[in-house]
Design brief:
- Two copies of one chain form a homodimer.
- The first copy, chain A, is an alpha/beta fold and 336 residues long.
- Helix content of chain A is 42%, strand content 11%.
- The first copy, chain A, is built from 14 helices and nine strands.
Chain lengths: 336, 322
Amino acid sequence: MLANLLSIASSSDFITRAMIFGVKPWFLDSYVSSTAAGSLPKQVKIVEVGPRDGLQNEKNIVPTQVKISLINMLSETGLSVIEATSFVSPKWVPQMADHTEVLQGIQKFPGVSYPVLTPNLKGFQAAVAAGAKEVSIFGAASELFTKKNINCSIEESLQRFSEVMHAAGAASVPVRGYVSCVLGCPYEGKIAPAKVAEVSKKMYSMGCYEISLGDTIGVGTPGSMKEMLSAVMKEVPVGALAVHCHDTYGQALANTLVALQMGVSVVDSSVAGLGGCPYAQGASGNVATEDLVYMLHGLGIHTGVDQQKLMEAGVFICKALNRRTSSKVVQASCRL
Amino acid sequence: MVAAKRALPWLAASLRPVSSTAAGSLPKQVKIVEVGPRDGLQNEKNIVPTQVKISLINMLSETGLSVIEATSFVSPKWVPQMADHTEVLQGIQKFPGVSYPVLTPNLKGFQAAVAAGAKEVSIFGAASELFTKKNINCSIEESLQRFSEVMHAAGAASVPVRGYVSCVLGCPYEGKIAPAKVAEVSKKMYSMGCYEISLGDTIGVGTPGSMKEMLSAVMKEVPVGALAVHCHDTYGQALANTLVALQMGVSVVDSSVAGLGGCPYAQGASGNVATEDLVYMLHGLGIHTGVDQQKLMEAGVFICKALNRRTSSKVVQASCRL
């Protein structure tokens, strides 16, 4: 075994060879540290946003069948939540124009949820008609961002959402709430933690079962994450909170770690780190699910995700998009 | 960069949104050891001319960095990228208050370094027997004997020595590395007289948990004030691992401008963590580094152009079109 390892290791693509020989590279499982638990959650639910947030922010559009195949591959990894698509007007988001076909075309694995974005009542109705069993709504902690994005104030956006909430309640459809710009806004700059707490509280009170706090432009650092979460946790129970960190400045995993240390146990990520940043050309966006899983597994935290299958899904979609993966784990493991 | 700053003027100022409650148990200041010109360039496939190396180091000297690892006095047969070590060390401007340590694998290298004007040197140990065997063809014990020759000469010449321990969180040959082994090697090097021990996750496989375990073991043998972490970002874990080290009291961090330096064990993989990204995190945490991020980014842009490669720094990728 040692001799095999040595000869494999001496080649530059030793990881690939290891995989060919059926020796699973030991570090793909990363080292489980027994003392890591400390104040960290024992398990983390990963919300995979690649097919929606990821593909929506990629410059190349992929065919419907590719999206369906991607989601089916992700369903095989053990992920329990996969954000499938977005019921917004194709005029605004052409990448999601095939939302109905995607939602109806994917295999619905038992135990896996496939939430879809619904910006308003019309989108919600179309989503439910297409078979959606869970939806998401998108708020923001920044007035300017809300104005720029959906041409209204935060207060008006919450009114629109309450229509969705009523309809969802009547249809027994759970709703996840997103709050954008929680650590900074491309237009307003600094965002007060109190504002994030206020918007989160309102969305939670309206009936969202979970609030995903998004560092939309990735400017946050562990300190600002801690401050923001401290404020929000006064208004929303930590069990109902998720973090959605962008890696635009390389801070995503450090920020996520701090959130875990504070008791957050739901993390959003995107396979292969799909999705750029619309505010900084060439910059990265979502944190890569593979890199997140690597950290969580190394910390001894249970995710239910099969890293190998996840990497395969990432390799698949990167080929289809003709782009290099943003996942460092995948970059280290093969030649993509 | 200029366009981005005009479009997002607040970004320039808030490249360091400071959190006032971040301090907690974190150090108030961190010394960054810039290893780009040595560890970085040594692991890049393209070799740059001596003058480019000198210009890079001079630019880095202007950023406020207080330690810049300049070159390596190893045989050009093994490390051709560092063949011009004497010219580099003698060609750079030596800024007051800035230290320019050089690597010296043995007594011969040490003597050449001192003859060329070196005022500080570094020695490289490892926590893995197989790695040591593969790298320098001897056991850990034998490598420490070689180092003790350097230590004696350095002591006699009043030259401070920094000790590196490689593979502290994993080895490309041995796999898992016992924290106790890291502690043992660190203790030996510290006892021999190294003023600081830099603990390197050479292949970047560590995660915050394994970092914590390893540091707990090492801190029983070496005071935390004499410890540094040198995290590779091969699996994207470097900043998270560095954060945990800071939370445990470590206040010296190694990094490489533009994230120079790949990984010799995984083709196409990244290596060193980018200094710009590290500085972004530290400044955001309200930790003082003395480093001017703007000038640092300029140095990174310069060397990437010379190397004809894209920067590995996410901060730079977000700020301009490189």
